[in-house]
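Backbone-to-sequence.
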């Protein structure tokens, strides 16, 4: 483990350090670019996140930077007190992913990044007034009414260039010249589904340049959450990525639980991991089917959807929904597993290995399929890290970035499974890594499916009968029938008083 204070202190003696779970260094903006270069040379090669913030008396960013060698993390805070014309130095030339993330900060906080080549909004329309996540943002809807006309596409942008004397000049830069052949892809293109669009400069079949437009399904969750309680925010995370709704719920709940010091019961942790892994398999199956369909192998789509439907049936019985589950809650999950959960999961685990063999026989070994994918879309490990391409795509480029292994959470450190890492760096390995991860998710489920049911048998079920005498007389009238039914089912009826046994809510 490197000494962060020593590394930063050598190039920035005025840095202030705070000892937290993640080391925090507060550095002046004038030294920030030098500090960033120093951290990169020290092995902190992955810019994991850039968080814009408004502290009232200052605006700024916190950069979270990781080392892909030991997965240690450092955070660096950079601020400015100028609220009228806030500026910070860009580090996009150190970590390429900062090009987009700094644009996002500008979009929501109005911070301009010096030497950044493209200071346009990233999510909001170019004609949006104000910066929504600032404390002084005017929310009057008349300022930003719903606009029903098309947003103007402009081939110019603004950049703020600093000279050798430290003077910053605003300059206009060109995105596409009139001589370039530009093709629009999306947002209604079959491959993007309304998520985003690309303006692409082509020279024959060679892509020369891409201009990215995000925000088509951006719904301002960050702003909405400012006025909600923690439990009220959870359902938003279902909708960020419906392929990974349950893991996203798990993530935000774990964050809140950690901040509040809440200990999650063991049973709830096991349930969370099981539904996460079922969700992961369902996501990879959809990838498999649609990936093959886009290559013309429509049969594979039906194969993948067949097994995915089995998983969705299990999740629907567990959560009450097939997509937006809203199952995780702060401290655990909203409901226990249904009685036949174990049986259904075991049935799925029994058929899935044979189904994977079918996929490989049908698709993976097909010479046409291989020729279409091998050596295509090569993304080196270095580029994957620099652009922040994590997940299965990063692991297909030789980057061991599975958080379940590198930074284990919940009960993952107790489980026996392999991190799937391939080094082909191409479209074929991005396909293959997902099929191999299905195998590992099945392995995790096999370890938990019996243990979770055993845990259930260790506790007695408790039913608490309550009623409001003043407003609901029908409840009182139904009590004799309820009591008789519960007694027939083997329940013992006890009063709730100082002598009542302790009840553990799960």
């Amino acid at each position: 483990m490197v000494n962060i204070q020593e590394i930063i202190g050598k190039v920035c003696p005025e840095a202030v350090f705070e000892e937290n779970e993640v080391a925090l260094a507060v550095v002046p903006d004038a030294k920030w670019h030098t500090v960033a270069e120093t951290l990169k040379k020290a092995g902190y090669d992955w810019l994991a996140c850039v968080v814009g913030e408004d502290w009232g008396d200052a605006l700024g960013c916190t950069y979270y930077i990781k080392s892909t060698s030991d997965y240690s993390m450092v955070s660096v805070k950079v601020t400015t007190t100028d609220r009228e014309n806030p500026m910070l130095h860009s580090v996009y030339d150190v970590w390429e992913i900062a090009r987009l993330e700094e644009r996002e900060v500008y979009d929501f906080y109005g911070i301009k990044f010096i030497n950044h080549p493209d200071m346009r909004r990233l999510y909001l329309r170019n004609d949006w007034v104000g910066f929504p996540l600032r404390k002084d943002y005017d929310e009057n809807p008349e300022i930003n009414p719903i606009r029903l006309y098309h947003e103007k596409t402009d081939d110019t942008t603004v950049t703020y260039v600093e000279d050798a004397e430290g003077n910053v000049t605003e300059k206009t830069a060109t995105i596409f010249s009139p001589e370039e052949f530009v093709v629009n892809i999306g947002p209604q293109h079959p491959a993007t589904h309304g998520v985003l669009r690309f303006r692409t400069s082509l020279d024959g079949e060679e892509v020369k340049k891409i201009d990215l437009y995000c925000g088509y399904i951006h719904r301002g969750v960050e702003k909405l959450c400012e006025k909600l309680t923690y439990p009220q925010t959870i359902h938003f995370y279902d909708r960020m990525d419906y392929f990974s709704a349950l893991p996203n719920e798990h993530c935000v709940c774990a964050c809140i639980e950690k901040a509040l010091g809440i200990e999650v019961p063991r049973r709830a942790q096991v349930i969370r991991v099981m539904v996460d892994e079922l969700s992961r398999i369902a996501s990879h199956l959809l990838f498999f089917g649609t990936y093959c369909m886009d290559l013309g192998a429509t049969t594979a789509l039906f194969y993948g959807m067949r097994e995915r439907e089995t998983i969705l049936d299990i999740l629907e019985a567990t959560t009450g929904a097939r997509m937006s589950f809203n199952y995780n809650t702060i401290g655990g999950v909203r409901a226990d597993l249904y009685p036949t959960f174990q049986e259904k999961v075991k049935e799925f685990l029994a058929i899935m290995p044979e189904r994977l063999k079918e996929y490989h026989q049908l698709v993976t070994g097909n010479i046409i399929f291989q020729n279409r994918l091998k050596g295509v879309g090569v993304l080196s490990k270095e580029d994957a890290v620099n652009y922040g391409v994590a997940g299965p795509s990063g692991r297909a480029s030789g980057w061991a970035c599975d958080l379940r292994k590198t930074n284990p959470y919940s009960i993952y450190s107790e489980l026996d499974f392999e991190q799937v890492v391939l080094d082909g760096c191409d479209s074929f390995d991005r396909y293959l890594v997902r099929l191999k991860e299905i195998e590992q998710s099945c392995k995790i489920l096999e370890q938990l499916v019996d243990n979770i049911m055993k845990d259930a048998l260790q506790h007695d079920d408790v039913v608490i009968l309550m009623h409001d005498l003043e407003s609901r007389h029908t409840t009182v009238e139904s009590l004799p029938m309820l009591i008789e039914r519960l007694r027939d089912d083997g329940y013992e009826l006890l009063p709730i008083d100082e002598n009542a046994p302790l009840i553990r809510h799960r």
